[in-house]
């Protein structure tokens, strides 16, 4: 099974994560995987205060919340987005 191109780091019962999912749907994002940071000490340390975070698994870049449709599309097109990794 191939590795996902994009991941969404999120939490259970996370209002901001729900909003991020809406943005992903509005942007017409193709299939992606979700990673829930709850209960994983390493992920909690890395993403706990940042979720939701959209990660480009190929390029290693990350887009921190908040982001809108245009920022997401620019990020996915490989363009740098101000204030993000």
How do the helices and strands line up, and which of them pair or pack?
Layout: E1 6-10, H1 15-26, E2 33-36, H2 41-47, E3 53-56, E4 62-64, H3 69-76
Parallel strand pairs: 1-2
Antiparallel strand pairs: 1-3, 3-4
Please tally the β strands and state the result: 4
User: Major beta sheet, specifics?
Assistant: 4 strands, mixed
Coarse structural class: alpha+beta
What is the fourth-level CATH superfamily?
A: Glutaredoxin
Share of residues in helices: 25-40%
Counting structural domains, the number is 1
How would you characterize this protein structure?
By secondary structure, the protein is an alpha+beta fold. The chain has helices spanning 15-26, 41-47, 69-76, and strands at 6-10, 33-36, 53-56, 62-64. The longest helix has 12 residues, at 15-26. The chain has one domain: Glutaredoxin (3-Layer(aba) Sandwich), CATH 3.40.30.10. Strands 2-1-3-4 form a four-stranded mixed sheet, covered by helices on one side.
